[in-house]
Amino acid sequence: MTPKAIFAGLTLLAAVAAPFLVGPYAQYILAMAAIYGFVGLGMYVLLGLGGQISLGHAAFWALGAYGSAVLTVRFGVPFPLAVIGGAVIAGVFGAIAAMPALRVQGHYLAIATLGLAIVVQQVLFQWDSVTGGRQGMLVPRPSLFGYEIDDDGHYYLIILACLLVAIWLVRNFQKSFLGISLKALRSSPIAAQAAGVGRAYHLIVAFVVSAALTGVSGAFYGALLGQLSTDSFTLLVSLDFLTMAVIGGLGSIGGALVGGIFYAVAPEILRDFQQAQQVIYGLLLIACMRLLPGGLASLPHAVATLFSSRRKSPPENNSSVELEKLSEVGK
User: Fold this and answer.
1) To pair with 282 at 20 to 30 A between CA atoms, which of 112, 195, 242, 289?
2) Is the dihedral of CA 192, 197, 198, 202 positive or negative?
3) In a domain, 245, yes or no
4) Reported pTM
5) What is the pLDDT of residues 34-87, one digit of tens each?
């Protein structure tokens, strides 16, 4: 077995054993880390593979959360199907958000997706008859095969199982023709299109997949929290998702998962600095971009490279020292 396979196996074993070793609140943090893992995977598909910046992922998160909750509460749809429904709703709006990407890129695309996030939040806030508007919406605990999952540790294991499936799907996606074509478009759009890669189709697919993954995250989030409010899906959340992706690492699936863990754990570590949390996030973002362009996921490789370069450095040239010694002996 390769070292990467051994590390992945040990990590999975630790993730499965974790809820049995900690208390209820830590189990909630674990569930949030797994939920943010879906968002990280979505950001990896769109930003890491496709090279497209989005400030509208809070909208996809909200659509997945409210879509799943409405299907469950208003229509009595079973929770697993409601999660899929939330992902489909978010994916449809992801296709809509991809339309500006066919004409604009970079900062202009970010502004366009920002507009979508603002519109979605306001619609959810004003649509009292469906979403509860200002008062929010109560979401029942999820049930699976007639069994109500009222324990956060058990719920975390279900989310973790779904996250593993999502990781497998994204891993296969990045190795497929679609994933390779997205990388080509990110590296050189003109060369990729000259080689026959359709930019419009591939960008729409990237937005849909990214939004659907974020929608799944929102569906799990609503059921865990028990109550939804539009205050949980603001522009600041979209910026936090972008920060999470960069700090974790845009170049790998592992970076997406590390970013999710960071985003779940960092507020607990910085609880005493509540007024300055966003400032600290900004400083960490600058530090990562300057010192760790590959994000926290690249830290082990960076440390190993540093030690190996020191180990392979050539020995000092002691010839001048020896000459000085010989001259002293001659005197």
Assistant:
1) 112
2) negative
3) no
4) 0.89
5) 999 999 999 999 999 988 888 889 999 999 999 999 999 989 899 999 999 999
